[in-house]
Structure formats: structure tokens, C-alpha cells
Amino acid sequence: MILRLTIDAFAATPATASVLAQLPACPVLGKSRTLVFEGGIPAATRHYAETPTPQVVIVEDTDGDRLTQHLDALSEVCEPGTRVLVIGPVNDIELYRRLLAHGVSDYLVTPVTADRILEAIARMFTDPGTAPEGRVIACWGARGGAGSSSVAQNLAWSLGRHLKDTVVYIDLDLAFGTSTLAFNLDAKQTLADALAHPDRLDDVLIDRCMAEYDDYLHILAAPGDGRCPPAMPEEALERLIGPAARMARVVVLDLPHLGAEWTLQRLATADEALIIATPDFASLRDTKTLFETLANRPRAPRLILNKIDPSCKNLPTPKDFEEIVHITPALLIPLDTALFGDAAANAQMLGETQPGHKIPLMLTQLAATLTGKPPPAKTGGAWWPRLLAWARR
């Protein structure tokens, strides 16, 4: 089993710090991000007062009498769903039971070894039903040519940079997907290889078929060879998306413009459904039909209007979409052939081509909205107002 987790460890003694430092080299955590700090539980409490918690927090405490008091303070700054592994000096079954009742995932008595810590972490995620699952975002174009793949690809890149965590992008358009071109990939294995043996789909096979674009974005590319596959088995998709969601903070599904049962099922069951449309009458009609089809979703889909050209006066406006579809667009992307053309020519994402351009900044804001994590506060600013203020003094 390969675990793809974010792990922070706070040691209180040099001996435990030395053991924790061995974790990043362990094959089981080869795809995980593991950081080791000093200071024990008090340091962890101070750290998470300003920083989001990872999936797993390992803390050591040397004061058995005040352990629960320290954990109370830590629990106030930990996000829901965070697994906490405590290392302490007291070997007492009653303490162990109290800690489990306190919400602690496991407790190890010092001295510890790397193998014991790995076993404890593995126990937390042995049952797939208990493993933390990332959010699944499905992107679908209301009509062909709406630019849904470009939006999905750039959104996945923006999500990874915004979260500073793993994001998996899955190109489900096996016949005509553009992921290998957009990310300039020489994929030895693709999504088609993973789906060729659905009975063997597991985290190891999926990981083998993934390509890493950067530190955060991992891609299951489509072959894009023009071969139309048979109907996509729902069971195979479940076996694919489930492990992918346990590997990453967010999974972005790039769905083909295909009115099939499996594409509609993905839109209906994803945590977020993004419908990408262009401001034309055919797209308006199809968007209205699709929103009516997905009316029973727990959360209404979000509408993104792409390729908005203010010079076209006779086409539907965002207000027309709002009045007819009864939803306010979540994002309005202006037509910018130069930006998208440069990004495509260089096989880059928009934020790599022009980091300060308003469109990649808009996608970063959408990433913040979808994840609930606000963008970092701007610091500094223009230098000349500060210079004028200094001159006036």
C-alpha cells in the first residue's frame, strides 16, 4: 500500500525526533509529504493557530499529567477530520482509553520506532471507508468548443498552487483528450492503460499510470488517439476515482461532451459540478436543459461563462443566463486569444504564462471558493504610496 498523505510531526525529545526523521525515506510514505518539527504539542498548537492542519499530526508529549490539557488546546486549532497520533511516556490502558475518547486516533508509548509509527498510520487508513477523501470536481462543457478542458486543466493547476497540496487531474475524454498536449507530457501509460484491467485497479496501478506535472499536480492523461472506447463501466470509474480521491486533496474530472449515462452520473455525484458555457444561444439552451437534468443534486452546479466578447452585441449576456437558467454565473472569463494562444504554444498553464494576468487570478479565486481556503493576504503593495508617505514626514 502506498499512502499519499500530508503529515506533520512535532517531537519533544531528540530520540523521537531522530526516529521521525526516518519517515520520509519509508517506501510506504514515498508519495507523502512529511515535515518534522520540534517542541511537542505546545509547538503544534502554536503552529496550527495560523496554519491549516494536514491529514495526520504526530505529537510527542513528555508530561503525562498535563497531556489531556495540552490536547484540549490542540483540538481547538485542529480542523475536523485531522488524524492525531500521540507519543508519550505513560503506559496505562486507562490513559489510552481516555485519549481515544478524546478523539485521538492512536497512542504509542516511548521509545518508538519508525516501523511502529508506520503501522499506526497504516491502521488509520486500512479501511478505505475511513481514509480521508479529497473533493471531486467534475467539469463539463455545455457544448463542444466551450473550453471546458482548458478551464479544468488551469483550475487543477491553480488548486494545487493554492492548496500547496496534491491535486489529481483525470482526463476522461479517452478519444480526443488534450492533456498530453496541454501539459507537454510524454506519458508512458495513460488512463486507457489503467482502465484496461478494471479488476486490478488499485492505488499502485493508478499511481504507476500518473504523470507528475509539478510538486502538486498529478495527471491521468487520456491517450487522445481518436479511438472511441466502448461504454465506460461505472464500476471501473468508482474503482478509479475512489483511490484517486484518497491520494489527493482534490480530484478534477475533465468530462467529454458526451450525453451518456456515465457522464451525467459523474456530474450528479461529484462534490462540485462546473458547467462551462459560451455566450451563444445554443449554449444557453443546452445549459438550461442540463441544469434541469441536475436539479436533484444536493448542491446546484456552478456555471462558468467562457469566451465573453463585449464587442458581440447580439449574443446572450450573463444577465440572460441568470434570468433563463436561474443561476448567477460563478465566473466570467473574457475572450483572450493571445493569452490562451501563448499558453498553448508553450504547453504552459495560464498562470505560468502570465502570472499577474486577471484570468489566472480569477481561477485562483475560484479555487479558494471551491476549497473554502481563502487566498493569502496581499502584503507590501505598490512602493510609491509608501515613498510619498515617507516624504511627507
Compute the separation of the termini in Å.
64 Å
Structural class: alpha/beta
Discrete helix count: 17
Q: Which percent range fits the helix content?
A: 40-55%
Helix and strand pattern: EHEHEHEHEHEHEHHHEEHEHEHEHEHHHH
General form: elongated
* Overall mean pLDDT: 87
Largest sheet: 8 strands, mixed
Low-confidence stretches: 379-393
As a percent range, the share of strand residues is: 15-25%
Number of strands: 13
| Radius of gyration over C-alpha positions, nearest whole angstrom | 24 Å
Which strands sit side by side, in order, in the main sheet? 8-9-7-10-6-11-12-13
Describe this structure in words.
This protein is α/β, with parallel strands linked by helices and 393 residues long. It has 17 helices and 13 strands. The protein has helices spanning 14-20, 40-48, 67-75, 93-101, 114-124, 148-163, 179-182, 191-195, 203-209, 234-247, 261-269, 281-293, 318-325, 337-346, 350-353, 358-371, 383-392, and strands at 6-11, 33-38, 56-60, 83-88, 106-109, 135-141, 167-171, 211-212, 217-220, 250-254, 272-277, 302-308, 331-334. The strands form 2 sheets. Strands 8-9-7-10-6-11-12-13 form an 8-stranded mixed β-sheet, sandwiched between helices. The protein has a 5-stranded parallel β-sheet with strand order 2-1-3-4-5, sandwiched between helices. Strand 3, helix 3 and strand 4 (83-88) form a beta-alpha-beta unit. Helix 2 packs parallel to helix 3. The radius of gyration is 24 Å and the shape is elongated. The termini are far apart. Mean pLDDT is 87; it is low at 379-393.
